[in-house]
Amino acid sequence: MNFDLTQEQVMIKNMVRDFADAEIAPRAEHVDRTGEFPFDTFMKMGELGMLGLPISEEYGGAGADTISYALAVEEVGRACGSHGLSYAAAVSLGVSPFYYFGTEEQKQKWLVPLAEGKILGAFGLTEPNAGSDASGTQTTAVLEGDEWVINGSKCFITNVSYAGVCIVTAVTDRSKGSKGISAFIVPTDTPGFSTSTPYDKLGLKGSNTAEIILDNVRVPRENLIGTENEGFKQFMVTLDGGRISIGALSVGIAQAAYEASLKYAKERVQFGQSISKFQMIQQKLADMATNIELARTAVHKAAFLKDQGRPFTKEGAMAKLFASEICMRACDQAIQIHGGYGYMKEYPVERYFRDAKLMEIGEGTSEVQRIVIARQIGC
Length: 379
Ligand code: CAA
Description:
Strand order of the largest sheet: 2-3-7-6
Structural class: alpha+beta
CATH topology of the largest domain: Butyryl-CoA Dehydrogenase, subunit A, domain 3
Bound molecules: acetoacetyl-coenzyme A
């Protein structure tokens, strides 16, 4: 067993850290305060090859492995949770389904510009009545001649107001339950496709999230992804990969909270000495450092298995579950270490705390991860 990163992985991590320190971290407070989506940063990420990082070069990607992608998400998330979530969703949900399930023609038409960062993609799965119960999809798609006619709505969709294309799931055979759902490619300029005003959220305010309204949206027959009625399994596979990235993002946010806390604890003097000298503060910092290390290792193990083409559903869910929960805990303790200052906007830890909460909800709640793990261990 070798825990060392390869030269290429180190190079990618350093490249993304430099970019994130220079271009992302300085904007983190601004995008949180204003809710502005930093579209221009995403175009720069595209130029650097970040939006197609784990996609093969043949389709416009950088041909890197999943561990490198996890490192990139962690570094972006360490600089800014909002950029981190939009980055993870853009690649894992917006680009990957084309790579996994698209026909050669769909790959040439959509995957290449997505991986090259020319356009952003979004993934429309969740609905007002189909959240954790993803099989409860109500949006429908009916074949009329050579066109699919899609009607329904989607909620909580990351990046969709800025996306050029969106994958939408819809019921194609109501009698078959989860085996009657299919996935469709919908260019966002298709008549009948519209998005709501972006949500006002607790955290991750600079990451765009909106509803989708699908009103008699017509797409050509060939916009079906893969095989009809295979949509549920397709998005479960997509979410397996996405969970690695949310694990990595959780590690990044926790790392930022830890670094800010360590710095503050060394600088802050109370009772005549730096508070980092007090055992109660040391215990908090030691717990944070330990949990972050373990979470990062779990994320990399799941990524490693994915890269080997081996099953990773259980490990991906475990990594996401553990990383998101230690992230929330680390951000909570970061505020505690900062005391009253931690509760104020002038320090970044209150933002980390707000951003962290979504890690336990998005791409499958902690409760869903426990269901997945319980089934995987044979409960
Ligand atoms: N890979 C491949 N196939 C899988 C699979 C996986 N990981 N998980 C399940 N399947 C297959 C099963 O084998 C089964 O097929 P068979 O009947 O042929 O064996 C089929 O899919 C149905 O599986 P289940 O019976 O397990 O399905 P379920 O209805 O009980 O649901 C669940 C299980 C785990 C709760 C699932 O619904 C789930 O993951 N829910 C959470 C959804 C989620 O994460 N949503 C967030 C999306 S993010 C978003 O939308 C917003 C955004 O923009 C970011």
